[in-house]
Design brief:
The complex is a heterodimer of chains A (112) and B (113). By secondary structure, chain A is an all-beta fold. In chain A, 0% of the residues lie in helices and 58% in strands. In chain A, strands 2, 4, 5, 6, 9, 10 and 11 form a seven-stranded mixed β-sheet that branches. In chain A, strands 1-3-8-7 form a four-stranded antiparallel β-sheet, with no helix packed on it. Chain B is mainly beta and 113 residues long. In chain B, strands 2, 4, 5, 9, 10 and 11 form a six-stranded mixed β-sheet that branches. A five-stranded antiparallel β-sheet of chain B has the order 1-3-8-7-6, with no helix packed on it. Classes of the chains: A mainly beta (112), B mainly beta (113). At the A-B interface, strand 5, strand 9 and strand 10 of A face strand 5, strand 9 and strand 10 of B.
């Protein structure tokens, strides 16, 4: 987990606030991903990026945006947070070819 | 689209026995399949990858099989220990032109002393 870091680790915010979750990696991987995990729903892909100039929507991108500032940094923003965005958010890096993924420790976000 | 099924009910196994978890998939023939372990509140950790042309893969006490005819993978933990208690996720290529992996919802394994 130390190769992929996420900040903050926990965040409580109010409806309508703008929130940014940050992810940094030292693995040197080109591929980076953002997922959310909810009880009973498993991991769901929000956005992914295969290099600095490549951003792609995942299964559930509505209400989210991302920025790939550098190969090592990939940020997720909630422009106007709503309660159903309360979840555990994971950043991951991936290997080209097999797409084996390496996850960060997660950010627990609560929107009141 | 790709659909992955893992037993959503918790699996209780006595310490020392072999735990066997199942992953079934439909609508696609992936080139490889992966297994991850997830502990509560933590990110998944990659365990094993098996390719379509491999019937079986082993790593220490772990063994994975991949039957492309049945569209099924089995994940075995031999000589199970309480420390093996966790949720285990299988993941496949998303397929259908989509990039990345599609993860199953996972099976919660409990090893009882």
């Amino acid at each position: 987990d130390a190769d992929v870091t996420q900040t903050p680790r926990n965040r409580i915010t109010k409806t309508g606030k703008r929130i940014m979750l940050e992810c940094s990696q030292t693995k040197g991987h080109d591929r980076m991903y953002w997922y959310r995990q909810d009880p009973g729903l498993g991991l769901r892909l929000i956005y992914y990026s295969f290099d600095v100039k490549d951003i792609n929507k995942g299964e559930i991108s509505d209400g989210y945006s991302v920025s790939r500032q550098a190969q090592a940094k990939f940020s997720l923003s909630l422009e106007s947070a709503i309660p159903n965005q309360t979840a555990l958010y994971f950043c991951a890096t991936g290997l080209a070819g097999t797409d084996t993924q390496y996850f960060g420790p997660g950010t627990r976000l609560t929107v009141l | 689209s790709q659909k992955i099924e893992q037993n959503s009910e918790a699996l209780n196994i006595q310490e020392g026995k072999t735990a066997t978890l199942t992953c079934n998939y439909t609508n696609y023939s992936p080139a490889y399949l992966q297994w991850y372990r997830q502990d509560p509140g933590r990110g998944p950790v990659f365990l094993l990858l098996i390719r379509e042309n491999e019937k079986e893969k082993r790593k220490e006490r772990l063994k994975v099989t991949f039957d492309t005819t049945l569209k099924q993978s089995l994940f075995h933990i031999t000589a199970s220990q309480p420390a093996d208690s966790a949720t285990y996720l299988c993941a496949l290529e998303s397929g259908g032109g989509a990039d990345g992996l599609t993860f199953g919802k996972g099976t919660h394994l409990i090893i009882q002393p």
